C-alpha cells in the first residue's frame, strides 16, 4: 500500500483561503482571511497545507513585530484549520513551524479549536449554588473528550507550552465558552420550541415579557453601527470596560460582509422607538456566534437583551447553524465573584459550558522568546 505524500506548507492567496473555509462545515471567524483586515496592526499571511496538489488545511497567521528588531510572534487565533483528529499532528505542525521561522517568527502561538470537557447548564447552576465549589473545574464534567486529551498529549510531546490562564481568560482567546447546541445527540435540528423549553423559567418569562411590552427586534444595516456604538460606549461606562472605537466595528462589518452574505449581522431591539439593546452576530458555516452586545440602563425592565438574543438564536436555527456560541466565560463559580452574573445570564439559555485546549506557544528562537515572555509577564 502506497503511503500518502507528506504534507507541505506554503503561502496561499486569500481567494484560495476563503474557498477552503467555505468548503468546510465551519471554522472560527478568527481564521477567515477577512479577519486580517480587522487587525491592521499585525502583518497577515494566509497559509495552506497541501497533500500533493490538494489543499487540505489553512491558517490565518498574524505577525506581531518585536520592538526594534525584525522578528515576530506568529499568532493563529482559534486555529489552524487542520485535521486535529490526526494521531500524527507533527506532520501538520512541524512544516508549519519551519515555514513560520523562515518568515522571521521567533515563536508561534495558536489556539486549537478542540474541546476537552463539557458541563451542562444544570451542573454549572448547581456549582454556583454550592459554597464549597469555586471553579468550574471543581465540578466533574458531563463529558471528557478523547480527541482533546490526545491533542494536549501530542502538543506536550512536540514541545509546545500551554499558556497561563487567569480566571479562564487567556491573553488571547477565552478557554471557556458557553454554547447552545442547535442539534440533538442524533444530529437532528432542534425546533425553536425545543430550544425555548431548554431555557430556564426566568429566560422564558423575560422573552415573553419583552414581546408583551412591545419590544421590536430587527436586523440593522451598516448605517446603524453608529447607534450600536453609542449604546456600546454607554454599556462600557456602566460595566467598567474599555470600548473599541466605531472604526473597528465599521472595518469588521465591511471585511466580513465582503466574504460571505450574512457572515456578520447587526441586531437592534427598540421599545417605543428607544434603542434598548443591540448586538453583533457572526456566522461561518454551521457555527453562529454572539460577538458583541450593548444594552441601555434605562428600560431594563422591558428585557431587550433577552429579546435580541432570542431573535439571534432563531436566525441561527433558520440558517442551518448547529451551535449558537455565546463566547467566553471565566471558570469562576464563586457567587461573590463579579463575573458570575455574566455566567448566570448565559447559563439561563440552557446550553453547556465547554473547555477548549487553550492557547499554546512554540519557541523558535529561545533567547528572543524568553525576552518576549518576560516582557509580557511584566506588562500583565
Automatic annotation (TrEMBL):
The keyword Cell wall biogenesis/degradation applies. One of its GO terms (molecular function) is aminoacyltransferase activity. Keywords: Acyltransferase, Cell shape, Cell wall biogenesis/degradation, Peptidoglycan synthesis, Transferase. The keyword Transferase applies. It comes from the Bacteria. Pfam families: FemAB. Belongs to the FemABX family. This is Peptidoglycan bridge formation protein FemAB. It comes from Nocardioides currus.
